[in-house]
């Protein structure tokens, strides 16, 4: 665990020996099967989470009942939601769930809060990650407010392609709808339109991107 934290936490070397021991003696690692809810407002005490493997999705629900993905965390990523909750500035009803079978290391909120209060390197890291994630979340909200479903869907497909490094995406229309904050039926119609334009090819549980340049223009 010590080697993992040293390789993952950018502030590890700046911690005192006492702070390192406090972290090592309180951190725990758990496995979360696909679909497990890791956090939602009111669920209980938050923890600072480090994803060791798998994918964790953070999302909010819109007033009309749709879901909008704010971020995904993968191996080595740290959970911004936990940081936000620890700093007592969370006003969004954010949910987190395991999108795939995942393994996550968790440091209790009180431990991270003590580190943040006593160590300037941790404080700087907290501010940096809060700023980065807030900007990313605001971009998602801006897309939802000002971009069409077609543009959001095209952007989502391109992001998936680059994330997976593949033009063949094994993903359902329902999952895409959750990502962009739309209804499955609307996403299906838009994908069919893309297919008619020769941009994608649709098959059961799979979307193949045929024309990246045209998809970027949508």
From TrEMBL:
Reading the lineage from the top rank, the first entry is Bacteria
CDD domains tied to this protein: CAP_ED
Q: What are its GO cellular component terms? A: cytosol
Q: Keywords on this record?
A: DNA-binding, Transcription, Transcription regulation
Taking every annotated instance into account, which residue ranges of this chain make up the domain HTH crp-type? 147-213
Q: Does the keyword Transcription regulation apply?
A: yes
PROSITE patterns assigned: HTH_CRP_2
GO terms (molecular function) for this protein are: DNA binding; DNA-binding transcription factor activity
Its protein name is: HTH crp-type domain-containing protein
């Amino acid at each position: 665990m010590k080697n993992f934290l040293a390789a993952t936490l950018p502030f590890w070397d700046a911690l005192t020996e006492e702070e390192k021991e406090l972290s090592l003696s309180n951190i725990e690692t758990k496995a979360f099967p696909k679909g497990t809810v890791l956090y939602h407002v009111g669920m209980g005490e938050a923890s600072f989470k480090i994803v060791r493997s798998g994918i964790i999705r953070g999302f909010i629900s819109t007033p009309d009942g749709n879901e909008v993905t704010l971020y995904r965390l993968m191996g080595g990523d740290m959970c911004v939601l936990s940081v936000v909750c620890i700093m007592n500035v969370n006003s969004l009803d954010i949910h987190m769930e395991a999108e795939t079978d995942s393994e996550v290391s968790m440091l209790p909120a009180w431990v991270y809060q003590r580190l943040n209060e006593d160590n300037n390197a941790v404080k700087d890291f907290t501010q940096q990650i809060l700023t980065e994630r807030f900007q990313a979340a605001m971009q998602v909200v801006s897309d939802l407010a000002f971009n069409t479903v077609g543009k959001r869907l095209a952007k989502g497909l391109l992001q998936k392609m680059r994330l997976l490094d593949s033009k063949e995406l094994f993903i359902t229309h329902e999952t895409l709808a959750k990502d962009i904050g739309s209804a499955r039926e609307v996403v299906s119609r838009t994908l069919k339109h893309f297919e008619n334009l020769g941009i994608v090819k649709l098959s059961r549980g799979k979307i193949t991107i045929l024309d990246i340049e045209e998809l970027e223009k949508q």
